[in-house]
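Explain this fold:

***
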Amino acid sequence: MKYLCWTLLLLTILTAAGAQELTLFGKIDGFAGDSVELNFPMDAGYQQGNSYYSKIAGDGGFRFDIQGSHARFALLIYGGQQEWLLLSPGRQLKTVFEAHTMNSTIGFAGEGKIENEVLEHCMDSWQVAEYIDLPEETLYTSLLPALRGMQHILLDPIDDVPLPDSLRKTLQVELSYRYATALYDFSDSLRRSGKDRDWLRWADSALGEVDLPSREALDISPSANVYLHDWAIHHFMKEALSLRKDTAIRKRIETDFGLSFDAVQQLGKDFGDDYLACIYAGKALQPDLAEYLFANRLVYYSNETLLPISRRLLSDLTLYFPDSHLRAYCIQKVAMMEQQLIKGQGNEEIVFRGDSIYNLSSLLAPYKGKVVYLDIWGTWCGPCREEIKFLPALKERFRGKGIVFLYLDMDEDDVQERWKEFVQQHAITGQHVRLNRQRLEPIWEELLHTHDVPRYYPSFFIFDGNGHVAEAGAPRPSEGERLYGELEGQLKGGVRP
């Protein structure tokens, strides 16, 4: 999950005395590749569009000098590995690590050495997933006290570390909230374990380890923003569970949300439970925290390039917080997606079919004599959306070679326009068909030869020029050369009699 830490957006350029800088430099032993990445997350994970890159010199050296007046948490990324860092103005940091074992070999030097050694020591200390099978009472009588003790052992010595007070506070705030969110994550493991575990009790305990973050904490700590969202989700889930036992459920929902029952149902259908949690928790939070929650979720969904819910959250932010200093960045994020949509609407390589489709033959009829790569997907499907970023390379590889890229979307009829906008915004060139679940089922049965097999999204099939299935369970676009080889093989095979 991804949540916004707003101070990280503010790059302060100072005059007269010159600009303050965050400086990171170092060396990669045994490097391969031409650059290293420095990402500034707005939450506990990678933040799209918020990275800097440094070319790696012939001796493995690299350097970043980035304008900024505040301490900032960052991810140093190289070769699929990442390491959390804390960069501060006037405290240069040097790192050295082995190319293939960054996390285990990284070392620190320079003025920023101390805080980064503390960060590295504490960052991943609260790994609790391995305790999932402990008896329930043992979780509270043994595990939770042990984790609390570990927290004190790790964090208390920070008081004596020779650091500026502001930097010490930044470390303590971040690590305290990271500890609480790690415990909260364990409640989700308990809930998903399939066992009769009181995950709600653990979640209550986890979130009770710290107070709701202040605005100041949200400004300096990515994990404080994670915690705010965890709190909102938990607050909503507890209420949802209590509603199941409430005989006057419709009235209770209307009271809680300040909306009609039908309006709440429609919002849930359109935008999901996470949005409902945002609305519900926003009414219980202090206004300044609710403002951050709305903005955080907007940036999260814009990073996922989901325009409808981002539009909705921007509308909410404008309605409830018209003077918010966070709106300008949120407007920018949504505007970028709107521009992508406008560009896609003029893309003639995106074709929406309007003919009647009722079986596999009618689906494939326009493509006789051509190899077809069929992608069965849904706009609601996370793994389906993950494959989109691999499509440009696939299309470029087979440009002009006559392969038909056919996208069969499973979405209900009331999201017709949303489906079209999604395809256009993401520039998914090719042939497009949308069927609801009921109308898609006959095609699934023809493809799988049974109605008893689960329907997985996404699923991929390759058809030869005669419309026969050449490969069921074909490679995904993300599998690159494996898929390319299969398609090239079909092109060479031609149309079989």
